[in-house]
Amino acid sequence: MKNTINEQAITQVTTPEQLLEHYQGHRRLTRKVIEAFPENEFFNYSIGGMRPFAIMVKELLAIAVPGLTEIVSGNTSEFDENRDYGTTKAEFLEKWDQNTEEINKLWKQLNAARFQENIKLFGQYEGSVLSNLQYFMDNEIHHRGQGYVYLRALGVEPPLFYDRS
Predict the structure, then answer these.
(1) Model's pTM, two decimal places?
(2) For residue 32, with 0-12 CB atoms within 10 Å meaning exposed, 13-18 middle and 19 or more buried, which class applies?
(3) In CATH, what number does 23-74+81-153 get?
(4) I need a labelling partner for 21 at 20 to 30 A (CA). Which of 49, 115, 130, 158 fits?
């Protein structure tokens, strides 16, 4: 049996719209984790030298819209996770919601034919458009997991990990 690709059409596993819904489902869950944090602990609590969750959320905000904007526009920008997103959890949630809408708008401008195109995001992270989008999601899941550890240590019941509604 030969291990070659024949000339038949390859079935697409997921559509760009399904990938966006998957991503936004993770964002909805991360928003619930942010909401679950007590105000002070959101900004100040850490375990084992890890950053406070607010700092992790700043990183997520610095990646999502700026990264997708760069992918869509082709204009390289510098990665900046030190942007000011406010001093209250409510301000972070407002920015999170604004970014959610912006991601939806930018995604409509993303041509699926570019998913396999190699880029250098933020002028330093090389990979395909798809691998960078997957990184956005993987990084968010990673940090959300750290947020779950914090919430448990604080005695706060975190949201169900599978509830992306």
Answers:
(1) 0.91
(2) middle
(3) 1.20.120.450
(4) 158
